[in-house]
Amino acid sequence: MAEADDFLALFDAAVCASSARPALHYFDGTISYEALDWHSDAFADYLLQRGLGEGDRMLVCLQNVPGFVIAFLGAAKAGVVMVPINPMYRERELRGLIDDCAPSLLVCHPEFQAVADAAGFPVDRRVVVRASDRQRENPPLLPEEPSIADGAAIFDAVVLAGTGKAVRPRNRDARRPLLMVYTSGTTGKPKGVVLSHANLCAGADFYRRAADLGCDDGVLAAAPLFHVTGLSGHIGAAIAAACPLVLAYRFQPDVILAEVERHRPTFTVAAVTALSALIDSPGFAREPIGSLRALFSGGAPIPPPLAERIGTSTGLSLRNVYGLTETTAPVIATPGGTASPVDSVSGALALGKPIPGSEVVVLAEDGAPAEEGEVGEIAVRGPSVFASYWQKPHETEAAFRDGWFLTGDMGRRDQAGWYFLVDRKKDMIVASGFKIWPREVEDLLYSHPAVREAGVVGVADEYRGETVKAVVSLHAGVSCTTDEIMAFCRERMAAFKCPRIVEIVDELPKTLTGKVLRRELSGPR
Fold first, then answer.
1. Does a structural domain hold residue 415?
2. Contact, 516 vs 300, CB < 8 A?
């Protein structure tokens, strides 16, 4: 496939290369690239007929279904900016996004109608997508859907009523907005990250090259499509390679494994927690996933013991990738054919090295480049880095320094050029004047044979200012006490870093992409 900096040009090239070949697999249903082009033209025409145009915002609140991809491409063809949001949002969260970005349309599943009603979003500006649409048979484990409200449009009817005419926007500047993706809010109020056509093309091209994808390959959508990983690492990667994207509604380990065996994808990228859930699934076996030959993980730190367990179970070398919503795709990754080294100080797995076209620097407190091995803030620049937050000029200005995007992540670089993540700048714990990075403590906890998941936070302490609290979950069938975990840490780590409080829970609170929500670990559970 040829390189492009306009996402529609990238899609047109995929249609030309793979017109009659599958573009989307969804359980037992398949949509060709030619049909995907036709359906998205029909949806683009619908948007234009409704009065939407260049720069208008459209909320898309869907699981991993064909309608998501059709709506995305249709919006791009109409010049409309898609704003993907989490289907688990409730009225307060939806209301906040409506107030922030003033969307002209909402595309959602039937069960989200009640949330839209509570948030006051008009029925006549909704398009409802049934989870079973575009199928010959009902897929497994889908929800029972309520009836569609009178006045709302039915997505399938919209795309099947298309005229077949091609729709393209007049403005083809690669810097024009394509998407607005809200940050996860793990460190504060979500901000709308405006991503351009050129940003997404850069991300898609990285995955295509890094995974060596071509028309005969396939991409497994293991991450949510509404997340930046799903947008660039699933939709973007598949279109850049002109190969099929395998969808399975949402992440359910046994269902995902069945779809891998059915459609034989060759590549996926997912949070390490999702990959861990796959190999822990009762239905897991190496042979059914034998089509996979490239396995990437991003969105959450990778403890070395867990990376080793995934590698042993799948027979694949897990490649680490590092990026943020603001960078569209990874800016640091483990190069192919190499293994990420482990930091001898913290025991953490290296993030990787800067990918081609991206620049990375570690900045000291004074803003100058840090010395090798010195901890500082990771800053990046390159073609996948966003230009602005939606209607937040002050936050945008604060996020950049001399053209470098300040990630808010603290890290260091070694002599060989490997980058290591220490932690989020805002998550540093200060106990009795000592600086403690939660990641270092979490990585040690993951090395305990009983610990399945771990999260570490600082909590108020009258004497020390802050103290270290660890919240862990255990492997099934394994018993362990909080005292045993604290003793394990004391034997292996300086006393000031060791958890003074340990809590054992069934599951840690996480985003859908596998990030532990540290802010929910502080208080009583």
1. no
2. yes
